[in-house]
Design goal:
By secondary structure, this protein is of the alpha+beta class. The protein has 15 helices and 9 strands. The strands form 2 sheets. It has a 5-stranded mixed sheet with strand order 5-6-7-8-9, sandwiched between helices. Strands 1-4-3-2 form a 4-stranded antiparallel sheet. Helix 3 packs across helix 5.
């Protein structure tokens, strides 16, 4: 997946895609310094972790404080694109699919005028336009990723492939914005205990065979109190367990809430070592745009972030009423 989300060059990136069939990304400083070809070569030869070390070291030499490990991962995924790869490109509440026709190249001329350093040539693909209900949880979760690049695996790849095959199935109706708004208002006003119980009810509908409320049961954990799970849902048939940290925030999530989100990726739980851990960080507020890198980082570390009306929409789609 590649998200066009560069505040200084988004317009030019969209123009390149629409007029020249070029999918682009930033990092122009490296290209201007003559390091573009080296970055492409290293990304195609190194592991992600080794490339991160190289990228950050080069960033320090060039005095680029934004050249972080997380951003190295995003560039690594982009520079690994090859002919034949399919790329999901989100746009607003929708997305498009493209097939790569040529691997990554540097764009020195464009880099001088815009923060665009690398491009891949693509062609648009015909696809089924799905409703949100038809997307499935795996691809829905991926589309909420706030970073710029992510490599899809598992069920999300299957979901994308299904969109390339015409389907005659009747499309399910979209949830109404009025219903979502009413559910969101109710989530903000309800007592914390009821809020947690509603999330537990939703997880039960998804197939959870056991629900635990750690604050009530005092289940031993090795996590920090500031990043504790409020609801634990065990899916024994799947061999997985979902740990939910849930906040009721109205408006922009404050700094304390952001720190809880960052800390949550390091939270570990005893007694569930034999299960696949899945973490949800749920808030009824919305995270500020300047925290996109933090959101992208925790999502890359297997924490699914549900914010603003995400939970309300899921509850409405599931047919849960209050």
């Amino acid at each position: 997946m590649h998200r066009i989300y560069n505040q200084t060059s988004a317009a030019e990136q969209k123009r390149l895609l629409e007029e020249e069939n070029k999918l682009s990304t930033g990092y122009a400083a490296f290209v201007i310094a003559g390091e573009g070809e080296n970055l492409i070569r290293h990304a195609q030869q190194m592991t992600k972790s080794d490339f991160a070390v190289y990228f950050q070291g080069l960033g320090q030499q060039m005095n680029l404080p934004w050249a972080t490990g997380t951003r190295s991962h995003w560039l690594y995924y982009f520079l690994q694109l090859d002919a034949g790869d399919v790329v999901v490109v989100p746009e607003g509440h929708h997305f498009h699919l493209f097939k790569v026709t040529n691997g990554p190249q540097v764009e020195p001329a464009i880099a001088q005028a815009h923060d665009i350093g690398f491009v891949v040539t693509v062609k648009p693909l015909d696809m089924v336009v799905p409703t949100k209900r038809q997307l499935g949880p795996a691809l829905t979760s991926i589309l909420k990723f706030r970073g710029t690049d992510l490599k899809l695996t598992g069920q999300s790849v299957t979901d994308v492939q299904a969109l390339l095959t015409p389907s005659q199935e009747t499309q399910a109706s979209e949830p109404s914005q009025k219903d979502i708004a009413q559910m969101q208002a109710a989530l903000l006003k309800m007592p914390e205990k009821q809020y947690h119980q509603l999330i537990a009810h939703y997880l039960t509908q998804l197939g959870a065979t056991e629900i635990i409320f750690p604050a009530i049961s005092q289940l031993p954990t090795t996590d920090e109190p500031s990043a504790a799970a409020d609801v634990i849902a065990v899916f024994r048939k799947l061999g997985a367990v979902v740990f939910v940290h849930a906040q009721q925030d109205d408006g922009v999530v404050d700094e304390a809430g952001i720190q809880k989100m960052v800390a949550y990726q390091y939270t570990t739980f005893e007694k569930f070592d034999t299960f696949v851990p899945i973490k949800w960080f749920v808030t009824t507020g919305h995270l500020p745009e300047e925290e996109d890198e933090a959101v992208g980082y925790v999502q890359e570390n297997r924490v699914q972030v549900l914010q603003n009306t995400d939970l309300a929409e899921r509850l409405v789609i599931a047919g849960i009423s209050l």
